[in-house]
Amino acid sequence: MRPSGRDLSEMRAVSIETGVTMHAEGSCLIRMGNTHVLCTATIEDRVPPFIKGSGLGWVTAEYGMLPRATNTRMRREATAGKQGGRTVEIQRLIGRSLRAGVDRVALGERQITVDCDVIQADGGTRCASITGGWVALRLAVNKLMKAGDVISDPLVDPVAAVSCGVYAGQAVLDLDYPEDSEAGVDGNFIIHGDGRLIEVQMSAEGATFSRDQMNQLMDLAEKGTAELMAAQKAATT
Which UniProt keywords are listed (predicted)? Predict the structure, then answer.
């Protein structure tokens, strides 16, 4: 029995509310159970120096957690004077995951920055950030297309992410914090709309896993991301 009472292959309740900020070109609040992330997308007519003059666009991301996103207050990283290693790793993951679904030639020489701010954390914050980040990106690109600033749609396919793991000896989909903190195996799966894998992060957190178990987790991830992509489509059409 999972702590939440969910079936092994059951996602947490997912909702995506769009247009939640008035200034960003694209924004949404994604809720995956008790994990809530605010995602905003900002369009800028500039690119990083290393691709300037190439005609290619760029999508990047920043990630952060509010001090009381967790059960005890975390110190703001700004007061520490630098980002922590976990934050840097997650925002790089979000950026490269979203870029995997972008035709950078079609985007043109401009940058879209996706900011993911965790309001409340209960496991799977990076996966919620990627999934919600794509929605914010989609909405921002829609504005570019409506204005005629891009000729063809730069977003090739949706990108979604979900966590899976081995909890109490069983493969489960979409871990919340009680499961994540005790999982023997923990994995994050980032999947392209056509079913191709963008990235898989898997580690043994206290128990090794077999090839069969990995296949079970992959099957669960495909099911979960298909549901998330349906939610993304519903939120952006």
Answer: Nucleotidyltransferase, RNA-binding, rRNA processing, Transferase, tRNA processing, tRNA-binding
